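It is worth pausing here to work through a concrete case rather than discussing structure prediction in the abstract. The textbook approach is simple: state the sequence, then state the predicted structure, then interpret. We follow exactly that order.
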Amino acid sequence: MEKQTDKKEELIADSLNAILANEFALFTKTLNYHWNVSGPRFHSIHTFLEQLYNEELSIMDELAERIRTIGYRPLSSVKEIQSEMKLTEHPGKFPETTGMLNELSEDNLYIQNQIKDCLGFVDSWKCDPGTEDFLVGLLQKHEKMRWMLRTHIE
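Step two, the predicted structure:
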C-alpha cells in the first residue's frame, strides 16, 4: 500500500529520483570508461574504475530502496532516467585516461552539490530524519570517490 504524503515528502522523493538519474548516468559513464581505458596505467585504472562502478551500482540500489521506504516509486526505465539526468554524455568519444578521471571527478562534484541542494531545501528534516541521514552518508561517499579520482589525476 502506497503512503499518502504531503508536498514536502513528494519534493523529497522527486529530489531523490533526480539524484538517482544522475547516479545512473555516472554509473554508465564509469562502466564505459572501464571498458575503454587504455594506456600505460591500464591495469590500475581498469581495476579502479571497476570498484567505482560497483560502488555506483550499490548507491543506485540504496537510493531506489530509500525512495520505496518513504512510500514512492524510483525511476525505473532508461527513458525516465534520461529525462531527469543532468550529467552529460559524449557518445563515441573516449578521452585519454586523465580526461576520463577528471570528467568522473567533476560528475561526482555535481552530484555532491545536488545532494547539498536537497539537504538545504527542506527547512526542517524532522519530517524525515532517515532520509536526511541517508543523504549525508551519500554525500560522504561521493566526497571520498572524488578524492580518490583526484588522487589518481595528481
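Step three, interpretation. The chain has a mean pLDDT of 92. The CA atoms of residues 16 and 69 lie 12 Å apart.
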